[in-house]
TrEMBL record:
Protein name: N-acetyl-gamma-glutamyl-phosphate reductase
Main location: cytoplasm
Entry keyword set: Amino-acid biosynthesis, Arginine biosynthesis, Cytoplasm, NADP, Oxidoreductase
PROSITE patterns: ARGC (PS01224)
Ranges where the Semialdehyde dehydrogenase NAD-binding domain occurs: 3-122
Keyword Kinase: no
Enzyme class: oxidoreductase
Gene: argC
Localisation per UniProt entry: Cytoplasm
Molecular-function annotations in GO: N-acetyl-gamma-glutamyl-phosphate reductase activity; NAD binding; NADP+ binding
InterPro entries xref list: AGPR, AGPR_AS, AGPR_dimerisation_dom, AGPR_type-1, NAD(P)-bd_dom_sf, Semialdehyde_DH_NAD-bd
Signal peptide bounds: none
Active site: C130
Listed HAMAP family: ArgC_type1
């Protein structure tokens, strides 16, 4: 049984990690670190855990923990690690953007469907962003087979939890309710890691990913549609995707219309392919807090420690 620590324990992703790890067969929570909530019961913040745990937030860390999850705001993980030292045996899984680019050689980019071998031997993992996960899983199979020749055009909608717990003008209920908007058009921070993965798999690719992110008036989930010019048939594309994901535990190619209730509260990514004249359309859906964050973080932990990849993650969608 490994001991896990969580840094930044009061946020949404930490709450999901706690829920998963409380029921994990091979891991136990050693500490939940929070500078804003020390001494308080974890269930006072993550209120659905009432009766599930007696854990309390702490402002002290165990430097000998087997694995530490960093659930800090973007830009804060590097600062935290510079000020706090863990043992040489401690593995780090960072859920921020701080270590996702390839210049941070001590961190492996944790997209299991494409980097599983590197993850198995990694000491530190940079967990992918939520949009990056949904979009990468939609578009990377064509890059892996060298089939990309043109730009991708992506439109994706995320729920309110994608903005975190800090309040802003666009996170208040009165703004989100019965509302819809786009933001950071063509300039979202997750584009960098998507582009990095594309170039790794198909170095000759010179196209762009034209991405329009949107805010939806629901709590959780991402629905992404991506299209590009494609000369092959739908059958050929289906064979490519099926082959790439044949051993994937959580990513599945399906028929029929996709909707978020199929994946919310699960670690799944569901994909659908369609062909329209000379274009292929890929629809991708995930839960932004699970496959887009905490679920994938535990999936990476499982791979690093040699556990069953789906350990603790056999979660059921709340369909109704």
């Amino acid at each position: 049984m490994i001991k896990a620590g969580i840094i930044g324990g009061a946020g949404y992703t930490a709450g999901e990690l706690i829920r998963i790890l409380l029921n994990h067969p091979d891991a136990e929570i050693d500490f939940v670190y929070s500078t804003s909530q020390p001494g308080k019961a974890v269930s006072t913040i993550h209120q659905d855990l009432a009766g599930e745990t007696d854990l309390k937030f702490t402002d002290a860390i165990n430097k000998e923990a087997d694995v530490v999850f960093l659930c800090l705001g973007h830009g804060n993980s590097k600062k935290f690690l510079s000020e706090n030292q863990f043992s040489d045996n401690t593995k780090i899984v960072d859920l921020s953007t701080d270590f996702r680019m390839s210049g941070d050689h001590e961190f492996v980019y944790g997209l299991p469907e494409f980097n599983k071998k590197e993850i198995q031997s990694a000491k530190n993992i940079a967990n992918p962003g939520c949009f990056a996960t949904a979009i990468s899983l939609a578009i990377l199979p064509l890059a892996k087979t060298g089939k990309l020749k043109d730009d991708w055009h992506v439109n994706a909608v995320t729920g309110a939890t994608g903005a975190g717990t800090s309040l802003s003008e666009t996170t208040h209920f009165t703004w989100r309710d019965n509302n819809f908007s786009s933001y950071k058009s063509f300039g979202h921070q997750h584009l960098n890691e998507i582009g990095q993965s594309l170039k790794k798999l198909q170095p000759s690719y010179e196209g762009e990913v034209n991405f329009i992110p949107n805010r939806g008036n629901f709590s959780r989930g991402i629905h992404a549609t991506a299209y590009t010019k494609y000369e092959g048939s739908l059958e050929e594309a289906s064979e490519i995707y099926s082959e790439v994901y044949k051993d994937a535990v959580f990513t599945h190619l399906v028929d029929g219309e996709l909707h978020l209730k199929q994946v919310v509260n699960t670690n799944k990514c569901l994909l659908k392919l369609e062909k329209f004249d000379n274009k292929i359309l890929v629809t991708s859906i995930i839960d932004n807090l699970l496959k887009g964050a905490s679920g994938q973080a535990v999936q990476n932990m499982n791979i690093m420690f040699g556990f069953e990849e789906s350990a603790g993650l056999k979660l059921k969608a709340n369909y109704f």
